[in-house]
Amino acid sequence: MATPTAIVRSTLESFADGILGAAPKLLSGLLFFLLAFLGITVVRRLLRASLSRAYPTDQRLIVDFVVIVVTVFLWFATALVILDIVGMGEIAASLGTATGFIALGVSYALSDMIEDTVAGIYLLKDPDFNIGDRVSAASTTGTVTAIGLRKSRFELDDGDVVVVANRDVEAKWTKQTVAGEQS
Q1: Which H or E run includes 142?
Q2: From the CB of residue 2, how many other CB atoms can be counted at a distance below 10 Å?
Q3: What angle, 0 to 180 degrees and rounded to 10, lies between the N-to-C axes of helices 60-85 and 89-109?
Q4: What is d(CA 110, CA 97) in angstroms, rounded to the nearest whole number?
């Protein structure tokens, strides 16, 4: 029968051996994390700089949206790789698969919002659709006062403001011309 001191000594030795055995994997994971951090920082800055040149400052919302989406994907991929490096590859594979199913469900649930966002990006890039234009869209005729990623605002002739989902605006809109003005 082992004495309590021998049990404690054996337990501590096993714990120390486990830590020493895991140290190379943990150090590799830490090194990968640091390299990934630097890489993601560089990618974010390059992406923001190139998109900022492509989009005017009044469309900064698109730049922020794209940078956030890319950053989330990069960090998620980094987390999965780190899990694999430290010996939890099965957990990483399970997380990747589960996230795919969750993303599929979320994208289905948010399909209208995603459609509004994509339409908003098209409207923001469209040189014929600008703030101050008089437009007919979705049974509404008014002056465009704001164009967001998900919805646009129109001021009607009576001063009321109507908010319309971008998918409805982008589906069919007509720019109205003022008498004497050429379009």
Answers
A1: strand 140-147
A2: 9
A3: 150
A4: 20
- Token representation of residue 162: 């109507």
Please report where in the chains the tokens 């509404």 appear, as a residue.
140
Using left for φ > 0, alpha for ψ between -120 and 50, and beta otherwise, residue 138 falls in left
| 65-70: Cβ within 8 A, 24+ apart | 65/117, 65/149, 70/43, 70/44
More reliable by pLDDT, 151 or 10: 151
pLDDT of residue 1: 67
Residue ranges and CATH numbers for the domains of the chain are: 4-109 (no CATH), 130-175 (2.30.30.60)
The whole-angstrom separation of Cα 78 and Cα 84 is 10
Per-residue model confidence as pLDDT tens digits over 91-132: 999 999 999 999 899 888 989 998 998 999 899 888 899 999
